[in-house]
Amino acid sequence: MNKxxxxxxxxxxxxxxSACGGGAAATEAPAEGGNNTLxxxxxxxxxxxxxxxxxxxxxxxxxxNFDVSMLDGKADVAEQTKAINNAVAQGADVIIVNPNDAxxxxxxxxxxxxAGVVVGIFMAAAAPGDSTxxxxxxxxxxxxxxxxGILDLFPDGATGVEIGGxxxxxxxxxxxxxxxxxxxxxxxxxxxxxxxxxxxxxxMAQAIxxxxxxxxxxxxxxxxxxxDNGATGVINALKAAGMEDVLVFGVDGNAVAFEQVQSWKNYxxxxxxxxxxxxxxxxIANLFLAKDASAKFDNIVPFDLITKDTFGxxxxxxW
Length: 319
Prior knowledge:
Blueprint: H1 3-19, E1 36-41, H2 48-60, E2 66-70, H3 77-89, E3 94-97, H4 106-114, E4 118-122, E5 133-136, H5 139-153, E6 158-163, H6 170-183, E7 189-195, H7 202-216, E8 222-225, H8 228-240, E9 247-252, H9 255-263, E10 267-271, H10 274-289, E11 298-300, E12 304-306
Parallel strand pairs: 1-2, 1-3, 3-4, 4-5, 5-11, 6-7, 6-8, 8-9, 9-10
Antiparallel strand pairs: 10-12
């Protein structure tokens, strides 16, 4: 066989391999336009705000080029740690976590970052290094708003109680710390008692409120409850005791809050917009994935103050 004929045959074989998808050229670069993967790990999927948060991640995922899934933290530190480890093992590009206990899951979050995963904290603040970034309201500001709201109704001061959020949760810690800091300048406001439930559970909040009503009775002029669904339990306890003039503050701004603002004589909600926080989380995650210099660790979304005078200015949320 002459050299010319041999060369022709070899060229023909190369063309056939290329047409059939063989050879190195077909696998040198990944297909363009693919999505990054994002795993949302709530403290508990049964928590209404977290369930709605996942719905908002799903709603806007395509806008930010993400494929979104969820692993449930099941209101348990060990389960949430396992979920973070599983997300890393599954090859997630981004993990977004709402912590059950901000300190207890730090080792898992740091390990995820060391594995090259972008780790965001959702609806709660975090310490530098514990995660890649966080997106949240400033929960400490909520406490200051409550103090001002108490003074608006009771300019000479008042006595009341505080019912916190889930013990150990960063949002609960910050709401309490902000409230305490703001109270330092107002000795005319006296907090008679402060207790945390073990979970964000309205029945637990109601049980705490019932005990406080039994103990303090008409001394309670205000109740600061760390979340609006928990305040439903507080209202039940106050109704049963005939204490329907008590000022109640909740935090979240959910559908329950909008109803309670209208139905309870003195109810104010300090609202965090879950949809805005979910969208901002995906925006910031993309900046970190792109190693964009503008990516920030701390990302604060402002509160909405929802009262009888302002609730008509907002679209009621679904959760």
